[in-house]
Amino acid sequence: MVNKSNFSIEKKSASSSIDLASYFFKVLSYWKWFLLATIIAFAVAKYKNDRKIRGYSLDTVVSIKEESNPLFSTGTNLTFNWGGASDLVETVKVILRSRTHNEKVVSRLQFYTQYLVQGEYRLDDAYGKTPFKIKVDTEKPQLYNTLIKVKMLANNKVELSVDYGENFNRISLINYKKDSVSYFTPTARNYSEEFTLGDKIEKEHLNFTILPSRTGGNSEEYFVQFGSFNGVVGGYRNVNVTDVAKGSSLIRLALSGPNKNRLADYLNTSVRVLSEDKQDQKIAYAVKTKEYIDTLFIAESKSLKDIERELGKYKQQNNIYDLSAEGSKIFEETTTLEREIRGVNDNVRYLNELESYIKSHSTYNSEAIPVPASVEVSDAKITSEIADLIQKSTLRENLRSTVTANHPQVIGLEKEIATSRRILLENIVTVRSSMRSKVKTNRGRLQSYSGKLRQLPKKEQGLIKFQRNYEISEANYNYLKQKSYEAGTAIAANVSDVKVIDSAKDLGQGPVYPNTQFNYVLALMLGTMLPLFFIILKEVLDNKIHTVEEIQNNYDIPVLGVVGKNMLETDLAVFTKPKSTVAESFRALRSNIQFLFRNNAESDSSSKTLVLTSSISGEGKTMISINMATVFALSGKKTVLVGLDLRKPKIFGDFGLSNDFGVVNYLINQKSLDEVTHTTQVPNLDVILSGPIPPNPSELLLSAKADEMMAILKEKYDYVVLDTPPVGLVSDALELFKYSDAVIYVIRQNYSEKGMMKMIDEKYANKEVKNISYVLNDFSVSGSYGYGYGYGYGYGYGNSYGYHENDKPKTVFQKIKNKLNL
Fold first, then answer.
1. pLDDT of res. 622
2. pLDDT of residue 463
3. Is the torsion defined by CA of 103, 105, 106, 107 positive or negative?
4. Which CATH code for domain 543-819?
């Protein structure tokens, strides 16, 4: 039995710890991968950083809080402003993202006009950096999506030129007022004309004024392009609107883009348009009320003058100027009652109009809601409900411009509007019923005073009638005059609910994208992680044998030694270059294999038989056989190399022999053993080739003739080396193990798969096979599979430190030549 302590490290258990140092050096050996991946990643990062358009982000902070005019009472403010404070911030958020609002902003700034300048990689946005500005005539057509070159000349002159391209038969024009596209056919491919800054240009395809700008510019040539109005609006609807603090009335508007001047102008103009719209909405009811009051005031003023003239005429004609005490009392009472009845009737009439409007409409706003005749609704609850209905309706319409009708928020608002509408109509019925009851009561009281009035003299009755009409008309006149003043003051003194806390401004902010530092850090990470990932993946998927340790840790059969890469064109490495590291590795194998021979108690003869096999073809079994036989022969021992791989013979080529006859001819009694034995150029070494390929190689090797051959060879030679077939393909080699004093099982580095040795290892563990060892062939020292200093200590291969003649690696051409057998 082989003493494993002389040849191998004891097999590690499955639970053994990972050799981190070994794995670190293995990963480190792929440093070229890491370097290449990092260089590529940094090149890509630099390309993206240089080529990608710089993007900036600006923001503005505004306060959205309902402001009431302290000069007026609560009732007055309710009269002139249906708005409410609840959900005001959320409503503003929806408005800022709405199509209607952004259309107003784009139209005011004419942002469909693009100002461009030729940059290093592309046409860059030059808005706010040009010595001119375009004011578009929106009612007339402009060139659509076509570059207009603007060349700055001396004396405030500019040259406009257009290249329509080869296909200029149908050029698009856009009319921003009508939002329509038309076409025209230019007379030539190119257009060019000079103008003076400030000129109004009126052409079939160009209709704008080119104005001087104070901003100036560093270039002599610029480009102008008129784009899609709807496309520009859609691009700006992605403005980011967020709360500065949860539950507060402060919101932040943020916008990103390549031009900070454009961002600042858009954000500030957006807030300005919002403020103006909110203020207009806030005073819309007051404006409408004042217009209605002024109409009534004019009519009441004319009526008052007519009554005053008739009253004076009556007094003069009837020579009566003052009322009696009884008449004065009746006059005051009836006047008060008629005034109350008239006021209540006005409110009833308004409630009827309001009810009709609510029932006949599904959308409600402060501009269309009916104005009360008395300019003051007596029931504050109705006023509050109208405000709530208008607010919810406005929020719903704003939402509809951004989401579909099936959106949960829209559906929720529909339900809330329906509920508010029902409650408002119920309150209108209740209040109107109460007012009608009051009118009925006052009319009864007025009827009792009418009886007393008839008891007065005829002239006094007539005077009371004229004076009562005068008093009522004068009271209405003064009331309307007061309310007109209040409405005008409310309009003039109205304060916007939108206040700017921080306006958007270019303060030298750096770009938010591309994030150059992040891209470089990401490049470094990718340059490290991607190779590491592929290395790990390669290790996981790799099932090849690479190191002696892998054999020792996974199999019971000990490792006899390693054989390095043979750089020669012949397998006779030991004979051809006896001082090479490969030759030295075979001498180490010759020394180590003596332990196998000594431990073979069954072998009593001085002749030793060595069997060489492997798992599959191509693992270098024949090369090991040839060189093991050579080292035995060169040591002065009479040696014979027998080719028993009858299916795929190879030995003859390296010795320059013909495979016309051999073992097969002997086994079938065609030749004698001496006739099939060849003397080689290696002293003390004879070779018996396999001969022609037989149809029944297994039967020949198991025949009695084979036993006779082996007995003769063991008597004649000191060492018999048998080159047998691979055990992983055929069973012949296992049958030949009976002749062996020692067995070498060849494994090739980076070629043999880990599971191939399982069968032979199990037979060894079950003691079916004895005196067997592994030899790792075609071995090269690499940091990829170890620490990098080789296996020279104990296995006969490693760093030579000048003691060996190391062969130069084959060139690529030589490798191709060998592959093609040229």
1. 92
2. 63
3. positive
4. 3.40.50.300
